[in-house]
Design brief:
Blueprint (H helix, E strand, L loop, with lengths): L2 H11 L7 H15 L9 H11 L3 H20 L24 H12 L5 H14 L3 H5 L2 E2 L8 E3 L4 E3 L14 E3 L2 H12 L7 E8 L2 E8 L4 H17 L7 E4 L2 E4 L4 H12 L4 H8 L3 H8 L8 H8 L3
Parallel strand pairs: 1-2
Antiparallel strand pairs: 2-3, 3-4, 5-6, 7-8
Helix pairs in contact: 1-2, 1-4, 2-4, 3-4, 5-6, 5-9, 6-10, 11-12
Length: 315
């Protein structure tokens, strides 16, 4: 059996049943360009290394794609298409990038967003939601206000509950759990609901219809351009005020401007710094306790406190 045949079987028979088949499709497309007619038994550490070297992308991307190849091989073996499994050699996992904002940096980022013309209001709402809930970008942009939808989650402003997962959506590894909404932020969401808002991040356009001003509301598709501009404006505004901030982060390809994912890192870090337990933080931010402890645990005031106390005791 060729690798291309194994990928095709996996894509046709298994991918449609998963929550995000498009992700598997993209990986199969990239894998097929390299492996194609190579036989499954030609998969080796050397060929996997050549794939990584030839892709010219971050090792994390290669690792995810080769993970799909391993899943395809396992599936074909389990279903009887292959007589024996084959090990796919993945590149080492990169250390997680843990860039979080200081309160000063977050304040300047908000100022930069509010200084934008067309995108200022909804980008500021995006940043606030990220800082309070630690949700991912796609989850925030699809977040409804008091409306259950198959297209996005919702904030229940009556009961103060955040539902990240769209109605009736199958759960995925990108966890989208339920959390309580902090009272301070809930008050803002209730004001937005009273004003007729349908989405947490919403674009409003005023138009003249038959001589009358009509406000049209809609979901924001992406904040990529607005985010980039807000980062640039924030740094420029801070510099003008003679305050030095650096809204960049380390990546596999060098220093680059921060991305919206920094809001999740920031929200979790701030919560632990204020004394949230690892257990409660994991529940609130819908992240595993293992991840919270490994990536963020050192920010907790109680981090290794019992060990420090034991070592510090005399005799």
């Amino acid at each position: 059996m060729t690798v291309s045949e194994a990928l095709s079987i996996y894509g046709e028979e298994h991918a449609p049943s998963v929550a995000d088949p498009a992700r598997i499709g993209y990986a199969i497309e990239s894998l097929d360009r390299f492996w194609g007619d190579l036989a499954v038994n030609e998969i080796s550490r050397a060929t996997c290394k050549r794939y990584v070297a030839g892709r010219g992308v971050a090792s994390g991307t290669c690792r995810r794609e080769l993970g799909v190849l391993q899943a395809a091989i396992n599936f074909c073996f389990d279903e009887g298409y292959l007589l024996s499994p084959k090990k796919v050699h993945l590149p080492d996992a990169a250390e997680p990038t843990h860039r979080w904002l200081t309160r000063q940096e977050a304040a300047w980022l908000l100022r930069g967003a509010r200084a934008l013309n067309a995108d200022g209001k909804h980008l500021a709402d995006f940043i606030m939601h990220g800082l309070y809930t630690g949700s991912r970008k796609a989850t925030i942009l699809a977040m409804h206000i008091d409306i259950a939808s198959v297209h996005g989650g919702r904030v229940d402003t009556v009961n103060g509950v955040l539902y990240r997962k769209p109605y009736d959506k199958k759960a995925t590894k990108k966890r989208q759990g339920t959390s309580r909404i902090p009272p301070r932020y809930l008050a803002q969401l209730r004001r937005q609901a009273t004003n007729g808002r349908r989405y947490v991040v919403e674009r409003t356009v005023q138009k003249k219809v038959d001589g009358e001003t009509v406000i049209q509301r809609g979901m924001v598709g992406d904040i990529k351009k607005g985010w980039k501009r807000a980062v640039e404006i924030a740094e420029a505004m801070a510099k003008k005020a003679e305050i030095q901030i650096d809204l960049t982060m380390d990546t596999e390809s060098g220093r680059k401007p921060i991305t919206p994912h920094v809001l999740k890192h920031t929200a979790i870090t701030w919560a632990l710094q204020k004394g949230a337990t690892i257990w409660d933080a994991a529940g609130y931010f819908d992240t595993t306790t293992a991840t919270i402890e490994k990536v963020y645990g050192h920010h907790s005031p109680d981090y290794q406190s019992s060990a420090v106390e034991a070592v510090n005791k005399r005799g």
